[in-house]
UniProtKB/TrEMBL annotation:
Pfam families the UniProt entry points to: Amidase_2
Name the UniProt record assigns to this protein: N-acetylmuramoyl-L-alanine amidase
GO MF terms held by the record: N-acetylmuramoyl-L-alanine amidase activity; zinc ion binding
SUPFAM superfamilies cross-referenced by the UniProt entry: N-acetylmuramoyl-L-alanine amidase-like
Entry's family note: Belongs to the N-acetylmuramoyl-L-alanine amidase 2 family.
Span of domain Peptidoglycan recognition protein family: 1-127
GO term, biological process aspect, one: peptidoglycan catabolic process
InterPro entries for this protein: Amidase/PGRP_sf, Amidase_domain, PGRP, PGRP_domain_met/bac
Length: 146
């Protein structure tokens, strides 16, 4: 097992998505599959066409497994070796269900891998050109201490 020392939070920068779609997008970029270890779904898991997205409420906040944790991620240059990548499906707006699932997933991963709250980061903290995950990561860190 590779060492896990941190968790990096992302957003997909897409209004919709599922593991299969993001796996295909990442392969188009030359990666060997989805770069994130977990996705947190929104109500639009599948693309119908740009004008006709069909909400699927049961996908809102659904935690989906992407790349196996044992496999190094492809989500944050220079930090993939010892991190877990978690991505919220969306751009700048996320549902309460997604945020609640993120908190629960982070708590679970922190316990499983003995990660301190100070080892949770937003992608933007490693790439100044990014705003991803477009949420207040410091607020999430405070919520994890409850």
């Amino acid at each position: 097992m590779r060492p896990i020392r941190k968790i990096i939070i992302h957003c997909t920068d897409s209004e919709w998505g599922n593991v299969q779609a993001i796996d295909a997008w990442h392969k188009q970029r030359g990666w060997d599959g989805i770069g994130y270890h977990f996705l947190i779904g929104n109500v639009y898991p599948e693309y119908q066409n740009i004008k006709n997205l069909h909400p699927v409420p049961e996908h809102d906040g659904l935690i989906l497994e992407g790349r196996p944790i044992e496999k190094m991620g492809a989500h944050c240059r220079g930090h993939n070796y010892d991190s877990i990548g978690v991505a919220l499906v969306g751009v700048k707006t996320f549902s309460k269900a997604q945020l609640y699932s993120l908190i629960n997933l982070l708590k679970l991963l922190m316990k499983q891998f003995q990660i301190d709250v100070d080892q949770i980061y937003g992608h933007y903290e490693f790439d100044p050109l990014k705003s991803c995950p477009n949420i207040d990561v410091e607020w999430f860190k405070k919520m994890l201490n409850f």
